[in-house]
Amino acid sequence: MLQFIPVKTRPLLPPKDDIYPVLDKYLPPLKEGDVIMVTSKILGIHQGRCVKIEKDTREEKDALIMREADYYIPRAQVPHEYSLTIKDNTLVASAGIDKSNGNGYYVFWPTQTNKLLREVCVYLKKKYRLQKLAVIAIDSHSLPLRHGTTGVAMGFYGLKPVKDYRGRPDIFGRKLKVTRANVVDSLASFCNLLMGESNETTPLLIVRDALFIDFTNRQTYHQLFMPITQDIFYPLLKKFHALQKKKFAIQHDRRHHH
């Protein structure tokens, strides 16, 4: 039977803290086929991806957002207090930069997230002598036309992120042509709800007996994403694309003139 096992830990403290003693102390014995959900925040703190809040102004945070975001729409063009950005193939506010539970620091998303998750996965596999294990990093983000946040996978290792139904028959025997299920974001959404958003101190969760998971030792991150120009939502996302091309053109022009 499918199980979701939240794991409470001590708070990981900015500007830098080590995740491995926390895994050793708080994770129960893992089993074959477990999936470990881990919040992006503790991964960022583990890497020291924290900046002390000096003035706590919009200008201070905006400068960090522009540095961290892969694509961004300036705050002046968004009717909200948050900047709209794309970071690591994910639509997220403020490039994922967060100061809640940061103890006076801005906490950034980790860098080379999938490499870090692979290291964590290999460590846990070795410790518990497992063949099949996966790790998914999650954060919360907002969905268009919806109140509230939901979880999103912003990195993963050890499993195939998409379940492909193409070529299979529907209930009337007609072959499916485009249907694929997003496994990692589906798990992230539900687990984010269980892990909480405030003072739960539950940055880890074990998904157990998920028979729909296809485990692998290969890097599968690329299987989840598509180029922005091929996305069904490109008519809405193209403003990011246009602004980013303009940004690169300005940078190129400055280098050329210098």
TrEMBL record:
Protein name: Coenzyme F420:L-glutamate ligase-like domain-containing protein
Domain Coenzyme F420:L-glutamate ligase-like: 11-209
Organism: Candidatus Falkowbacteria bacterium RIFOXYC2_FULL_47_12
InterPro entries: F420-0_gamma-glut_ligase-dom
Coiled-coil region: none
GO molecular function, one term: coenzyme F420-0:L-glutamate ligase activity
UniProt xrefs under SUPFAM superfamilies: CofE-like
